[in-house]
Hints:
Helices cover 24% and strands 0% of the residues. The protein has two helices and no strands. The chain has helices at residues 42-51, 71-80.
Amino acid sequence: xxxxxxxxxxxxxxxxxxxxxxxxxxxxxxxxxxxxxxxxxxxxxxxxxxxxxxxxxxxxxxxxxxxxxxxxxxxxxxxxxx
Length: 82
């Protein structure tokens, strides 16, 4: 094919993948995986758990979901449910 030539297109693609909804239920064994005072993000703690042989499960959410981490997002979510 000629450089810059058309190879194909997918019109308005739809993606489906798991995301973290920010709800965690941790067994007490996870508390020993990070020293007191050490900052750690949940993905890192969960990976430490897996590496330590702990079971990490998930519960798929198929219902409406929207990130409301910013004030504008929260306001837009309120409109979604009016």
